[in-house]
Design goal:
The structure holds 2 protein chains of 2 kinds. By secondary structure, chain A is mostly helical. Chain A has one domain. Helices cover 66% and strands 9% of the residues of chain A. A two-stranded antiparallel sheet of chain A has the order 1-2. In chain A, a hairpin with a 3-residue loop joins strand 1 and strand 2. By secondary structure, chain B is mainly α. Chain B has one domain. Chain B is flat, with a radius of gyration of 17 Å. Classes of the chains: A mainly alpha, B mainly alpha. At the A-B interface, helix 1, helix 2 and helix 3 of A face helix 3 of B. Chain B: Its main location: membrane. Chain B: This is Na(+)/H(+) antiporter subunit F1. Chain B: Belongs to the CPA3 antiporters (TC 2.A.63) subunit F family.
Chain lengths: 140, 93
């Protein structure tokens, strides 16, 4: 049976980038405003799920050639490494440090090490959710 | 102004209850789908009115997030109704 998905595929190609941009915004807004790694990861998962709905599993796997199980490992390594790195500086586990830097384009910016932890959470959420959906989502 | 916003909140809440009835005992699946989409829109309006009541801008991101998630849910439900399968393994079969 020939499938006719032109409207859904054209919409998904545009909407994927809008949702990805919003997920990046909500990921970087996470420290002082609502948001953070978990919600950003869920939104990225939603964007990829929209691609999966419009196209199919093999096309998306060819477009995003990641092994999402390894993405989970990288995220866990980032999070636990950031949390355990505080022990090296003789402060308790999970202590986070921050400082003000004068970056060329952004001006006076406050950089936190909690950001690295958050990006680890982001990678874990994206990897786990996409792995679950790719495992149970495909029909026979 | 406060009274107006609270009255509209109550009206939206009552209409949400009416839509829940359609979700629970809708005769067919498209009825439930449209009712769930309507519940998403009502959640968005409740959050917008609450952000006026609490006088904050932090809920604006939540509105966009619920809209995106409701859109993806509606698309997947309608693809399930239309095609029978949500995610295909290969389109060029």
């Amino acid at each position: 049976m020939k499938k006719n998905n032109v409207i859904l595929q054209t919409t998904a190609k545009v909407t994927f980038f809008i949702i990805s941009l919003f997920s990046i915004h909500i990921f970087f807004a996470g420290h002082f405003a609502p948001g953070g790694g978990f919600v950003g990861g869920l939104l990225t998962t939603g964007a990829i799920v929209l691609l999966l709905l419009a196209f199919d599993l093999e096309t998306v796997q060819a477009t995003l050639p990641f092994n999402f199980t390894i993405v989970i490992g990288i995220g866990l390594l980032l999070s636990l490494g950031t949390a355990a790195g505080a022990i090296l500086f003789n402060v308790p586990f999970f202590t986070h440090a921050f400082a003000h830097f004068d970056l060329p384009l952004f001006g006076d910016t406050e950089l936190h090490t909690a950001m690295i932890f958050d990006s680890g959470v982001y990678l874990v959420v994206v990897g786990a959710a996409i792995t679950i959906i790719q495992s149970i989502g495909g029909d026979e | 102004m406060k009274i107006f916003i609270w009255i509209s909140l109550i009206i939206i809440f009552l209409s949400m209850l009416g839509t829940l009835v359609r979700v629970f005992k809708g005769p067919s699946t498209p009825d439930r789908l449209i009712a769930l989409d309507g519940i998403g829109v009502m959640l968005i309006s409740i959050i917008a009115l609450l952000s006026i009541v609490f006088d904050t801008i932090f809920f604006i991101d939540v509105i966009l997030l619920i809209a995106i998630m409701s859109f993806i849910g509606t698309v997947s439900f309608s693809k399930f109704i239309e095609k029978g399968a949500i995610i295909d393994r290969d389109t060029h079969r």
